[in-house]
Amino acid sequence: MAGASSCCVNLGVTAKTQQPFASSKSSKLSNSSSFSFFPDTSSPSSISLRAQKPLVSFSVTRRRDSTLVAAASAKPEPLKIMIAGAPASGKGTQCELITKKYDLVHIAAGDLLRAEIASGSENGKRAREYMDRGQLVPDEIVVMMVKDRLLQPDSREKGWLLDGYPRSSSQATALKEFGFKPDIFILLDVPEEILVERVVGRRLDPVTGKIYHLKLSCDWLLITKMWKQFFQCMKILQSRHVIVSLPIYPVKIAKLFWGSLPVSSTAPYHDIILRIGF
Ligand SMILES: Nc1ncnc2c1ncn2[C@@H]1O[C@H](COP(=O)(O)OP(=O)(O)O)[C@@H](O)[C@H]1O
């Protein structure tokens, strides 16, 4: 199996290169690289994920007459990605983009736990107690759940994007001991002040159920200043059905709905969309 590489995508206002997963937790996951993030020179503000996996894999089998038969398969080995990031780091958006682009199975630890709760199982009942308190669910529940999901035929066949796992070094070690290794570990590194700003500015559209940000959605001064990026961004968002009704919201209704419209020179959402050049 190919070794894992890791990368850190800085999605703050100022871009900088950093060590991935800034702790010893992920250092074991980092060695040779099958996938890597690299600056896309055609667009200085974007970063692209480029596949470098072998397109042909070989298998060798021994026949009954003891001759060895080598078979070449044109099927590439499925891609395996782990992604981590704080709330409001844009993880949901990136997961959507990555799974769509690479046709991977999106496995979110939180979703698995919610499904377990919905099933009414004993594990689900225990998990709920921890989740209600905002604490991590014990490893003995989470690890086996994630492992079982990774072993499902669709994950093995298509590859996976594991989201929200590992959240501790013991979870990482456990998965490694089961023989799972990501090809790449993506850490969305957003400065804390930006995360706070995003969370504070988030609003839920009661009609569509979608989440918007005050500054992105209603900052008309910003929009006129950055019209090109705005429309580019809107196009991407609309194509992914994230923002459907926003362009038809009149300013007055938007003001009533979202309150005052702050003016800012930063564009958190643009930042994510433009820097990740998928
Ligand atoms: N890898 C994990 N290990 C332990 N508990 C987890 C893990 N992933 C999710 N959880 C539990 O599920 C809850 C919801 O997780 P998630 O859906 O990822 O949302 P959030 O990003 O808000 O934590 C967490 O607060 C935690 O209690």
Automatic annotation (TrEMBL):
<keyword id="KW-0418">Kinase</keyword>
<dbReference type="InterPro" id="IPR006259">
    <property type="entry name" value="Adenyl_kin_sub"/>
</dbReference>
<keyword id="KW-0547">Nucleotide-binding</keyword>
<dbReference type="InterPro" id="IPR027417">
    <property type="entry name" value="P-loop_NTPase"/>
</dbReference>
<dbReference type="InterPro" id="IPR000850">
    <property type="entry name" value="Adenylat/UMP-CMP_kin"/>
</dbReference>
<keyword id="KW-0808">Transferase</keyword>
<dbReference type="InterPro" id="IPR033690">
    <property type="entry name" value="Adenylat_kinase_CS"/>
</dbReference>
<dbReference type="Pfam" id="PF00406">
    <property type="entry name" value="ADK"/>
</dbReference>
<dbReference type="GO" id="GO:0005524">
    <property type="term" value="F:ATP binding"/>
</dbReference>
<dbReference type="GO" id="GO:0004017">
    <property type="term" value="F:AMP kinase activity"/>
</dbReference>
<comment type="subunit">
    <text>Monomer.</text>
</comment>
<comment type="similarity">
    <text>Belongs to the adenylate kinase family.</text>
</comment>
<protein>
    <recommendedName>
        <fullName>adenylate kinase</fullName>
        <ecNumber>2.7.4.3</ecNumber>
    </recommendedName>
</protein>
